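thought: fold this chain, then report.
action: predict
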Amino acid sequence: MKAIILAAGLGSRLGSLGKNTPKGMITVFGKTLLERQIEIFQNCGINDITIVTGHNSNSINFPNVNYIKNNNYATTNMNESLFCAREKFDDSILISYSDIIYEQKIIEQLLQSKFDFSIGIRLNWKESYENRLQHPLSEAENVIIENQKIIYLRKNLLTCTQDQKIGEFLGLMKLTKKGSNELLNKYLELKQNHTKTFHSSESLEKAYLTDMLQEMIDSGSTLNPVILNHLWFEIDTTEDLKRAEKSLKI
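observation:
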């Protein structure tokens, strides 16, 4: 089992905090977000950890961790950053956004899942957007679940049928070796042939990870939700940081 943490993006919505500091290096009660994730992975027996860097990459420096830089971080998006680490796709992989805080129980639950594509989801997601003025409900990365499978991923999904559920993708997923191979092969195929818009993005290079996951669904892969109910916070704005600090202090 390997882990990849995506930490290449600009923290533009964090104001002065993100101007010179990658979001993963934001400190909460004495520990950076990346430091917290690394500790959790190591506690779970995952020691092959790769951080994909970009913005101010020199500020990210932890021992016993691999680093790969997305040199085009300013003009690409999350999906391209992931495949900068394509050399790691020879085994089962745990993938995590860098700007999130979560309990170790969440990773333990994902590791127990046997699906080829285990996608971390929460169903009670709307309540966390109440009074979240800097990051509105429309920015949530939503999924539609039907018959225990994810059939659609996109921001701002608010309606579904009676047989479906809407959840939020938490920026965490686990792939078996088979799932990793499927994902990488599809990406390499797209890099050779795709030249137009890509799902919700203007191009493959600017695609979100959810765009790539939707492509996998459309290509016949089965993505299974793993419903996570343990502590989880996204740190996208200064408001998010204050909310997380308040909840963690309690």
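thought: worth noting. Residues 2-249 form a domain with the Spore Coat Polysaccharide Biosynthesis Protein SpsA; Chain A fold (CATH 3.90.550.10).
final: tokens above.
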